[in-house]
Amino acid sequence: MTDISISVTGKAGRITLQRPEALNAMTYEMCLAIEDALDKWATDAAVQLVVLDAEGDRAFCSGGDIAELYATGTKGDYAYGQKFWADEYRLNHKIFHYPKPVVSFLQGFTMGGGVGIGCHGSHRIVGDSSQIAMPECGIGLIPDVGGSLMLALAPGRLGEYLGTTAARMNASDAIFAGFADHYIPEAQWADLISTLEMTGDTDCLVEAATIPDPGPLQEAMADINRHFHGVSLGDVLTTLKGEDSDFARDTLKRMGRNSPLSMACTIEVLNRLRGPSLTLEKALDLEYRFTARAMEHGDFLEGIRAAIIDKDRAPKWQYADGAVPPMAVSKMLMPLGKMALKLGGTGMKIGFIGLGNMGAPMAANLAKAGHDVTGFDVAGTTAEGVVTAESVGEATKGMDIVITMLPNGDILRTVANDVIPAMKPGATLIDCSTVDVESARAVAAQADAAGLGCVDAPVSGGIGGAAGGTLTFMAGGTDAAFDAAKPLFDIMGQKAVHCGDAGAGQAAKICNNMILGATMIATCEAFALADKLGLDRQKMFDVVSTSSGYSWTMNAYCPAPGIGPHSPADNDYQPGFAAELMLKDLGLSQQAAEAVDADTPMGQRALELYRQFVEDEGGKGKDFSAMLPRFSDRGRG
């Protein structure tokens, strides 16, 4: 293959990219050839290290060769791209975990796919010509090839800035951001490679390295942190547009070239990655969720058309105004089920107790992700891909993780009495039920006494979130137990927050749902009032959803049929979250408030209204947003 040279010279495995006329862009065949060489050298005692370099002085590797991806994608063949990315990510993973030193010499441009092969090794060398960047948002992708891992680890909010602006890093800034290790003048590289080949020892690199002067990004960190600390693209754009400065104007100009959907998903991915459970595997999984959908549902094909096919530099992006709906982001980052990225690992053995409306799709998503799931439900319900057990004990014995999704605290305590003695030492119990705080703490104490980890992790997101893998988990328990559970939360949901010790997850859930219940009542009251004032519902939504009345119950779960995103109101109030479940959660909030002597008059009033609605007004079996027709039919008396 003329595009790449692969050989063993002395004690070094040598890989040299040989497409200088194409800025050494990596083809699919080059990717497979590199992987094959690494596999052979991993167990070859004669090869003590690997050296990656490239011909020419303009680029180490400017990215992946995307022409074929465009050609196949425009014909409706998305499988080729999905396989390309899966195989490329597998190579990135192997370089990151390679058992021998991997030394890369990164002259000129190192971008996109070049980061994937050049920036995951053990010794990453940069020089005066080095320019490293993640420009994927400019073609409708997100920073991938494991680049999101480095962005999430970068100082402050530099990761968000680099990912959404495609800003280039010089040698100093690349080291500062974690994309490189050593600055060495490029005139010394040839001699250093000869030394590596002769000795098989990397000490010469440390001896030759010097410290470069700080780069421009380091000097801009105060501006970057100030503007990119928000949790969404909208937050970032709001702060930038609100400041009259050279930095803000330049940054908005850079971001204005890129896909808003890609930038929004980039920020969300970095939010999900940050924390103690950050791994390359998690980063690659999230990246693949996006790239696997990028041709069909994202802006990738349009981005390539504008950049390299028609070259008009005028892409017609989705959400061109920058207002990317949260559901659009969630859709791109949902678990892929059977299509999930596979890096050669093995799944966990999981027992799942409670396969109801929420539990069944949660268990199914775990099974689709490659885990060995055994489930049990007293009603005999099953879940796709889940082995059915005949008893709680059968679903529990020998499992690495046991998950429960149960109706109330009394049932949880009863089930725990059967589950905990049957679990193997060191396993982890994850309770996703919504129960009282005291029951959660009692079960956690019981699990701890048995040598088990335990996490109380109630969820928010309803049946749709359970099916789509977009739940939010509010978790309580030790750091070790949370870390054990976190990979599963990433499959079943889009966010998991470690709220504190045992019971903290339940405390967060009941506080959240007290807000939700009271807010839904206020939203329904406002629509009913608008009706009687003669205000068009759509006009009210258009005003409130973009002004100070903004809320989740208005913008994402509007109780008015035909207004806003699709919600249970559009399905005759068939429950996404049943009114009786809201009544239960409000009851838990007031029980907790009474226990700690907290004054919660709005929560108490919301409880009374939902009790009246469910028990006396036919609200049982309807969605909790069905309060709207209830208020519409009533007068002030």
Automatic annotation (TrEMBL):
Q: Which InterPro entries match?
A: 3-OH-isobutyrate_DH-rel_CS, 6-PGluconate_DH-like_C_sf, 6PGD_dom2, 6PGDH_NADP-bd, ClpP/crotonase-like_dom_sf, ECH_dom, HIBADH, HIBADH-like_NADP-bd
User: What enzyme class is recorded for this protein?
Assistant: oxidoreductase
Name the Gene Ontology biological process terms: L-valine catabolic process
Q: Does the keyword Protease apply?
A: no
**Coiled coil located at which positions?**
none
Pfam families assigned: ECH_2, NAD_binding_11, NAD_binding_2
Q: Does the keyword DNA damage apply?
A: no
The 6-phosphogluconate dehydrogenase NADP-binding domain sits at 349-500
| Catalyzed reactions | a (3S)-3-hydroxyacyl-CoA + NAD(+) = a 3-oxoacyl-CoA + NADH + H(+); 3-hydroxy-2-methylpropanoate + NAD(+) = 2-methyl-3-oxopropanoate + NADH + H(+)
The UniProt entry, under Gene3D superfamilies, shows: 2-enoyl-CoA Hydratase, Chain A, domain 1, N-(1-d-carboxylethyl)-l-norvaline Dehydrogenase, domain 2, NAD(P)-binding Rossmann-like Domain
UniProt domain Enoyl-CoA hydratase/isomerase: residue ranges: 13-321
Which residues are in the 3-hydroxyisobutyrate dehydrogenase-like NAD-binding domain?
Answer: 503-628
MF terms per GO, please? (3S)-3-hydroxyacyl-CoA dehydrogenase (NAD+) activity; 3-hydroxyisobutyrate dehydrogenase activity; NAD binding; NADP binding
The UniProt record lists the EC number as 1.1.1.31
What are the entry keywords?
A: Branched-chain amino acid catabolism, NAD, Oxidoreductase
Give the pathway annotation.
Amino-acid degradation; L-valine degradation
Give the record's family classification: Belongs to the HIBADH-related family.
**What's the protein called, per UniProt?**
3-hydroxyisobutyrate dehydrogenase
